[in-house]
Structure formats: C-alpha cells, structure tokens
Amino acid sequence: MLRPTLATLALAVALMAGPALAQTAPAPVPVAPPAPPYGRSVTLAEAKVAVAAAEAEARKQGWFMVIVVVEPNGALVMSEKMDGAQYGSNDVARRKAETSANFRRPTSYFQEAVKGGTLNAIFTGALAIEGGELLIVDGKILGAIGASGGSGAQDGLIARAGAEAVK
C-alpha cells in the first residue's frame, strides 16, 4: 500500500515541476550587426574636427569632459582634457576609444550585453561603458572617439557629437 502512494506522489511532483522548468528559457544572445571594415587612419585634421564638435556639445550641456581620438589600432591621435574635467577620465576616455576601435563597435553595445547577462563585465581589453564611438567615413572605420567625465549616457552624447562631425 505504501509503494503505490510513494510512486503516485513522485509522479505528481514530477508533473507539477515540469511546466515550471520548461518556462525558464536562457537569455537570448544579442546578434551583433556586421562590423564595418577598417579603412585608413584618421588624420589629425579630422581628429581636431571631431574633438571640437564634442567639446562644443559638452560646453553647450555644461559638462567637463576628456575627449580622445585614436586610430583603428587604438594608437592615440589626440587627447583633450577640458578645464574642470576629473583626472580619472583621462584613462577612461582613452580606453573607451580603444575599445570601440579594437572591437569595431560602440562601447554601448558591450554595456547592453553586460546588462542583458550575455557578456561578463570584465573581459580583456574592453571597457563596457557608453562613451566610445567609431569614426566612420565612406563605410570604413578611420578610428574612434571616447569621452568621459559624466554619466555613460552623457559621455555617449558627447562622443556621438564628435563622430557625427567627421562623417
């Protein structure tokens, strides 16, 4: 008499647990858009245009930023620290620009992947915080611009202003 009761109980538990387990789906892996190819390196004149546009937007917003432009390989072309910008932003802005250039993606792509749980927050050579944007001309990557000094969203706005000026 005890055996049929235990078997019935085990079957009931298994049937009830099945639907609950079936509803747990893994988080979808974001599909990265095709990355544009690398092109020539950004010139100093182009870097100056990008930095000037980024600085103008930062001044308009009343923010103090560090703005960095790098070549496609991450080599520094230009760096500007606005008066009043925090010292820690020097390295952060450069790393944002390097991340965008080296991985051919804006840093906001990595930030969203971390938020979505599809990417570890710490992976070699990358900074997953908004504020790094690609410099693209004629569909090719000439380099990247990084901005730091505000929130990620503020840094992203400044970097995008610089990137737009070079197109």
What does this entry look like structurally?
The chain has 167 residues and is an alpha+beta fold. The protein is built from 5 helices and 4 strands, in the order H-H-E-E-H-H-E-E-H. It has a single domain, classed as 2-Layer Sandwich (Beta-Lactamase), CATH 3.30.450. A 4-stranded antiparallel β-sheet has the order 2-1-4-3. Helix 2 crosses helix 5 (152-166). It starts with a helix and ends with a helix.
Structural class: alpha+beta
**What does the average pLDDT come to?**
86
Q: What kind of sheet is the major sheet?
A: 4 strands, antiparallel
- Portion in strands: 15-25%
Alpha-carbon distance between the termini? Answer: 81 Å
CATH class: Alpha Beta
SSE pattern, N- to C-terminal: HHEEHHEEH
Q: In one word, what is the shape?
A: globular
CATH topology group:
Beta-Lactamase
Count of helices? 5
List the helices and strands and how they pair.
Elements: H1 2-22, H2 44-61, E1 66-70, E2 76-81, H3 89-103, H4 107-115, E3 132-137, E4 140-148, H5 152-166
Antiparallel strand pairs: 1-2, 1-4, 3-4
Key attributes of the depicted protein:
167 residues; 4-stranded antiparallel sheet; 16% strand
